[in-house]
Amino acid sequence: MTVSNATLPREHVARARTAVFVVFTASGVAFASWASRIADVKATLGLSAGQLGMVLLAMSAGSLVALPSTGRIAAKFGVVPTIRVGMLLSLLGFATVGLGVDLAQSSAVVAAGLFLVGTGIGVWDVTMNLEGAVVERMLGQTVMPQFHAAFSGGTVASALVGSGMSWAGIPLLPHLLLSALTVTALGFWALRSFLPRELEFSDAKEPVNERAATGGLPTTDRSPARSAWLEPRTLRIGLVVLVAAFTEGTANDWLAVAFVEGHELPAWAGVLGFATFLSFMTLGRLLGTRWLDTYGRVPVLRATFALAVVGSVLVIFGTPWMAFIGAAIWGVGVSLGFPVGMSASADDPQRAGARMSVVATIGYLAFIAGPPALGFLGDHVGVLRSLLAVGTMALLVQVILESVREPARTDPTTAQAEPARGAS
């Protein structure tokens, strides 16, 4: 029997929302388990900044391989089986990374493991965002930043654990393996409460929250025959996500190293700087849903990207204490770019899978170019000064932020007289 969102009980949608929170959180825990130990890996393997950048490139390459086809795979086999495959690939990759650092002490083995991690997390990332976009449309309110806040919350908790592991000198293999097994088990449990497959790529025309009614995308964006790679709006959204991914990913990969090498702090303090960034990124995503519903996507992103500039400048040129403040401001500044881009790419539910794959692929190019580029700059001007690239990118993106503008909202008085329409 075909299930429609008009007949799906509200409780089922609420359970699906909770399940999406859990899956996002698990993804954040998995990612930060690795990111929190990057400085330890650099020291253990004796890597230069440029060499570390090339190792980090393997993870980005794995994601880039997976992203273009993930939307089609999820449409064919379903969201739940696709996420499960991503989780299992990540588990295998983390085990390989731990073996490469603790036993083989080989950057090549670590890179191979990171390629698997990147592939798994790339599949996992796009598919959970697809599910989140469907839940958001059915609820009729902005919730995507909250899902990404769950991811950030997972990274905060995991980074704090990683800081303790680093301080105690715990090897990477037991740390990464325990983390991966835990999040995989948690994720498999949560996936049981995802929406029925019939709703995954359907046009949700009646939100559960009947007060919200949105629509009005240009007709040129609703052509099912046109490749998403040929749509100017989709490509511009992808560039916004690319900058958001670069400003966020740079902190993920290099902030702890910058605190250690640029401000001459111990490794555990560098991880705390990274945790500060993650904590305030989480806070920005939690508060951001109200900001977005009140002021709209474009004004909010203009303000937050400007904060990213200010925060990165404080990290680079401030004292160690000012750098911690800068990490907090930077975290708020990058908090909303990625989730808003994901929501914007899924404004038309019938084209959500194809467009989100394109946007995610473009966004993840930042993870391809970012690590080696920052590593190259770090070898010549120092890791700390190389972070100036963040402020530059955050300023340039202001030119194309109009591309993420939400569909026109229906007047509330009209919405009461007419049937509500789902976000398109």
UniProtKB/TrEMBL annotation:
Domain of life where this protein originates: Bacteria
InterPro entries according to UniProt: MFS, MFS_trans_sf, MFS_Transporter
Coiled-coil region: none
Membrane topology listed for this record: Multi-pass membrane protein
Subcellular location: Membrane
Pfam families: MFS_1 (PF07690)
Transmembrane segments: 20-39, 45-67, 79-101, 107-126, 147-170, 176-195, 235-255, 267-288, 300-317, 323-344, 356-377, 383-401
GO molecular function: transmembrane transporter activity
GO CC entries: membrane
Sorted UniProt keywords: Membrane, Transmembrane, Transmembrane helix
Name listed for the protein in its UniProt record: Membrane protein
